[in-house]
Amino acid sequence: MSTKIKIETLKKYIKELIKQELAEVSVTGAIDGGEGPPKTPYAFKKKKKKKDESINEAKFAVKFNIGTMGETAMIVIDAASEGAAKMLVAKQLRQGQKGIVSVKRVEAGKAKQVSQRLENVNEGRYHDYRNDESLSPKQKIGYSMREVRDKLNELDKLVKMNVRLKNEIGVDSTSYWKRTHTAMKKISERLVKLANKVGQLY
Fold first, then answer.
1. Is 46 a member of any domain?
2. Domain termination site, one of 129, 150, 170
């Protein structure tokens, strides 16, 4: 179908809508002999939604970057809008909003399916890793631990720089942002969990 035909069809549709609106106006204008508005002014008004219905949170699937090699992950969260969902996830990312790839609203029934698929994807990644025959299990663990060590070295340097900055400038830890305190607490908890997991490899 050409663009011209589409435009013509659209014009006809708009004209039809205008005719219908004008017909309704003339009918309501004739109520009570045409003397002003009807005696029930709210008769044609749409009912307002209850407050708790209008502010219901929806499910959003947020896709975000998790590495420098273009790897992505997805999470399903409750939020009032796409923007709110984006902000909630961005707060947890080092790159902030730049790390968000996409945000899509998910119907409540489908949210469980998406979550299930995410679990299956993560499980699938493990199976691919386990069944990869290019490396032996010993090599996989060895290379992985070296990669973890290198990343921890990077983190260590970053933390050391900030400790030095804090001491040289004399920044008081009570003046940190609330988010900074939350992040530090989470980092500490994750490092303890990571240490326990590494301990399981001995």
1. no
2. 129
